[in-house]
Specification:
8 strands; four-stranded antiparallel sheet; 187 residues; Alpha-Beta Plaits; globular; alpha+beta
Length: 187
């Protein structure tokens, strides 16, 4: 997957409004739409990337037209390079020591927290799942030495917006069979 300097995401509680947001964002600035689709239960997500200024302009327009239908959003300039490949399972050929799984109520919260974990802890992002088949929730897996993974878990609990994290689980030395399942994106 291509590297982009900035990432933006708008989640709405209306499919129709989400499609409108997609349109106005494309009309406002030269951006790349990475994903745009409905989420369960009845939400819509538009995930865009590009230059910092362009993504910021598109986000401002999308949020304006999204109005009260906006459930959550994010704008991350200088996004960690590991985030984009993790969205497509591209980071899974890594040595696994310990793992932390972070489950969130929104896609935006998962992306923001994954980026923050990478910037504040010596961990690597394995996978980032954006609400497909998850009832509108999202989750990500990070790996590293046990002490770093535990520190990342503590940091993320404190850094998360209230009510956005549904669960955080640390698995020291996960069984190879579990990691094969995760690597195959069976979860």
């Amino acid at each position: 997957m291509m590297k982009y300097p900035a990432l933006g995401l708008v989640e709405t509680n209306s499919v129709a409004r989400g499609i409108l947001v997609h349109d106005v964002m494309l009309k406002k600035a030269r951006i790349t739409v990475l994903e745009s689709h409905s989420l369960c239960p009845g939400k819509y997500m538009v995930l865009v990337a590009g230059g910092e200024r362009e993504v910021q302009e598109a986000m401002e327009e999308g949020l304006h037209y999204g109005g009260e239908a906006v459930v959550d959003s994010l704008f991350i300039p200088n996004i960690s390079e590991e985030v984009f490949p993790a969205m497509t399972g591209g980071n899974q050929d890594q040595e696994i020591d310990s793992v932390v799984i972070v489950e969130t109520f929104s896609v935006s919260a998962a992306v923001v927290l994954a980026d923050q974990a990478l910037k504040h802890n010596a961990v690597r992002l394995l996978d980032l799942r954006l609400a497909q088949g998850l009832g509108g929730k999202a989750f990500f897996l990070i790996t590293g030495p046990l002490y770093e993974v535990e520190e990342a878990a503590r940091y993320l609990e404190e850094a998360a917006e209230p009510g956005m994290v549904t669960n955080i689980e640390v698995i020291p030395a996960p069984h190879a069979g579990l990691m094969e399942a995760v690597g195959g994106r069976i979860l």
